[in-house]
Amino acid sequence: MNAPLVKLEGLKKYFPVRSDKLFSEKEWIKAVDGVYLEIQPGEVIGLVGESGCGKSTLVNLLLRLEEATEGKIWFDETDLTHLSQEALRKTRRDIQMVFQDPFWSLNPRLLVRDIVGEPLTVYLKLSQTQLVEKVQSLLEMVGLPRESLYHYPHEFSSGQRQRIAIARALALEPRLVVLDEPTSAIDILSQAQILDLLMQIKRNLGLTYILISHDLSVVHYLSDRIVVMYLGKVVEEGEADTIFNSPRHPYTQALLNAIPDITKYSLDDLQTLEGSVPSAINPPSGCRFHTRCPMAMEVCRREEPVMLKLGNSHRAACHLLQSNNPKAKRGIP
Amino acid sequence: MKSFDEFLLVFKPQWREFQQSLYLFNRNHLQFASLMVVLLLVLIAIFAPWIAPYPTHILEETNVQDKLLAPSTQYWFGTDELGRDMFSRVLYGTRISLVTALIAVFISLCIRIPLGAVAGTLGGFVDEVIMRLTDIFLSFPPLLLSIAIAAFLGPSLQNAIAAIVISWWPWYTRLIRGQAVSIRERQFVRAALSIGTPRSKIIFNHVLPNTIAPVIVQASMDIGGVILTIAALSFLGLGAQAPTPEWGLLISTSRTYFLNAWWYSTFPGLAIIVTVLAFNLIGDGIREVLDPKTRKI
Predict the structure, then answer these.
(1) Quick one: closest CA in A to B15, which residue?
(2) Is A118's CB within 8 Å of B196's CB?
(3) B187: nearest CA partner in chain A
(4) Buried b (16+ CB within 10 A) or exposed e, B26-48
(5) Which of A69, A74, B95, B148 lies 20 to 30 Å from A30 when distance is taken between CA atoms?
(6) Among the CATH numbers 2.60.120.290, 3.40.190.10, 1.10.3720.10, 1.10.245.10, which is that of B98-295?
(7) Is the pLDDT of residue B105 over 80?
(8) Chain A partners of B209 at a C-beta cutoff of 8 Å?
(9) Could you read off the pLDDT of A191-221 as tens digits, one per residue?
(10) Measured between alpha carbons, how far is A310 from A304 in angstroms, rounded to an integer?
(11) Cβ contact B9–A129 (<8 Å)
């Protein structure tokens, strides 16, 4: 295996909680609590999990929009967490992001030329003509007409706006692109087009993607590997097909069972988890999922499960998977 | 030396925008009328000494044999107690009102924009100090505060401007701060941060352009408000002093002759109403022109 492009080592991010009491102990929201992850160049990593499980914080840490509390982020052998602002700027060129809602991520007062050209003007010294040419070629790459240059974002449909956002992310020829729910704000037909576009761009430019999405079918379609997060921790990761066909962690199974499917006709056919993600201020002891896990055991309350290697690149953290566990022998339903 | 093509490339969008702005303004007849009135007032202000039929009547010259004459073909707006032509004096008053209002609003903007932007963007302690300071000023009714300051500084037009600037700045500062705070949290600012855009560029390219529209709208409406306040201060004897033909002062001196010389107070009053109304209406027009969403044509 070649050197990973991104390597997260025990990454943690705690947010202080503002307390009303004067002398209370300081409390922390453990948004990301010890994440280890490797991303190979050219890979598409799907990051899934419920709202509030720390996906967005993880990405913000990677982009250094937030400072990590603990741990290291290696990007191509440099540790991003300890880079000075000046050195960070150089690395930042290589990591770009496409945001969830293209209506809010594009400044309504700038022309498309200036939006897509912004990263270019920040990093490169181009003349107006060069800039316009470069922006035009970027717009062509994402399938927008050349005339879009002199229009404002609100003159476009949501799908087209997302194309503008993608063009901006690609302007500096980055190596890693973070896609934060790139299709959730877009109508269903444009969604498919955007996904195709993303795949095509990836193949042409040899990019690496981190894809965050609630929509598991989108994740399945795009990703090579899937990472499942729950309450700031990775609970399972593996090849996309492995995760979809034989998920091992009960949380992953629950997520997959909750996909609304055209063949399931009523809501009763969907198996959903009770309740919602517990507060990250005082996460449950032991296995964090035990409060909602249909198969919780005594040990889950006490001990935190470790990551177990289940296959070539398939790993999961669950007590059920320990080889000495009687339930594991029978196989998990 | 830039080539002409490059020039076109750079200014093509600006030209398109200018045409669009005109179109938007013309769409609403009332706003268009107010734009015309404001342009007319500006022209009057610039050329007042030349278009006034009796330029010498503007200041001290007296003409007592013609005192308090009703409007006629000779004196369109009648004459005052010293026989001066009211038409010339009201015309010249336009210049005084517009210039003082522009100065007052401009100085206030110079204080408010940096203060509000700093408070909103930096937050924390600085924000706290600036906002509590505005709270203190906001706890006085603005007109009353202006009167108190003008009285303290002594009656003159300059002091009236100072009084208005001092009593009005907190209103804008709040407005700009609120805008800056809300824009700082917008996704496109985060997007710019993730690109690696330096903070100074973020303020100039993202925060300020999105802040400035409501400020300009507010400023154009406030020109009306300032004209009104200056007139009020002058009326109370705290602003312009005789023989300056300031509208408020004209109305103030007309009180004595109110019963038998209706024209004396009427024409300066009408001038105030028309001017203030025109500036308020033009504010709405500017809001529409500046909002990119109304540009969906």
Answers:
(1) A150
(2) no
(3) A105
(4) eeeeebbebbebbeebeebbeeb
(5) A74
(6) 1.10.3720.10
(7) yes
(8) 107, 109-110
(9) 889 999 999 999 999 899 999 988 888 888 8
(10) 18
(11) yes
